[in-house]
Prior knowledge:
The protein has helices at about 10-15, 35-40, 60-70, 95-105, 120-140, 145-155, 160-165, and strands at about 25, 50-55, 75-80, 90, 110-115. By secondary structure, the chain is of the alpha+beta class. The protein has a 5-stranded mixed beta sheet, sandwiched between helices. Strand 1 (about 25), helix 2 (about 35-40) and strand 2 form a beta-alpha-beta unit.
Amino acid sequence: MPIPGASAALCALSAAGLPSDRFLFLGFPPRTPSQRRAWIESAASEPGTLVLYESGKRVTETLAAVSEVLGDERRVVVGRELTKRFETFLFGSAGDLSRRLREDEEQRLGELVILVEGAAGAVAGDLGEQARVLRLLAEELPLRQAAALGARLTGAKKNALYRLGLDLGLGQKE
């Protein structure tokens, strides 16, 4: 049980069993599905634990988006009603937790904190290689095609590579 503190995010982080030496607090995700996916993609390569808040009404959709964007390889923890009588921690993959919470309405009540394991060292380190591949492909192809082909070559998510290309200023050909 975490010790009560000024922040639900820090309480959850102290008790979740995920790395806490580095974390990124993201706050509440956007409400629209496309903006939510883009928001998650923007933090995909973060090596630290991702910490976000979500309402019980949208938690299953947010976890499904985490599963879609990041896959189900990362560990996820949902903390509910921290430091209160009905405090609960649920552990699993984003897809698994989305299904479990969809089936159990009671677990969606109260204040919720979602923690997502950060990108593995290899994934975070691959960002330079992904950028190199994307730059080479974007010299000959429009960014959308370069991202699709780059995803096949590197194993990265197509949307994440497209966003990386935009961040690198490679989208001028389209």
